[in-house]
Amino acid sequence: QKFDLITDHVGLTWFINKSSLTGRSMRWITTLQEYDFDIIYKPGRKHSNVDALSRIPNQRAEKKKQQKLNRTFNQQIPSTSRIVNRRK
Questions:
Q1: Which residues form the signal peptide (predicted)?
Q2: Contact 30, 65 (CB under 8 A)
Q3: Same domain (yes/no): 34, 48
């Protein structure tokens, strides 16, 4: 039975339509050709029925990113007390 595969993975649409492929890619295409489907690209921001679990923000990564930003900021911006002490 034919079906539509709606994806926000633009590379997948390119991959399916590419004419020359490597061995591994060719094996993937051969496997996919067993199914009757059309790939339809739809940007992620236009998806209204996304998988909630795959869209959960990674809080650990965000915390590490914020800590790195804070360290960088603190290293590059002198503290107020040092500025005041230099002016005395």
A1: none
A2: no
A3: yes
Domain boundaries, position 27: 1-53
Q: Are residues 41 and 1 in the same domain?
A: yes
What are the Cα distances from residue 53, in Å, to 8, 14, 50, 57, 70? Answer: 16, 26, 9, 9, 29
Residue type, 20: S
pTM of the model: 0.45
Question: For 30-72, how does the pLDDT look when each residue is reduced to its tens digit (9 = 90+)?
Answer: 888 889 988 888 887 776 666 666 666 778 888 888 888 888 7
CB 32, CB 63: distance < 8 Å: no
Enumerate residues 6+ apart whose C-beta is below 8 A from 4: 37, 38, 40
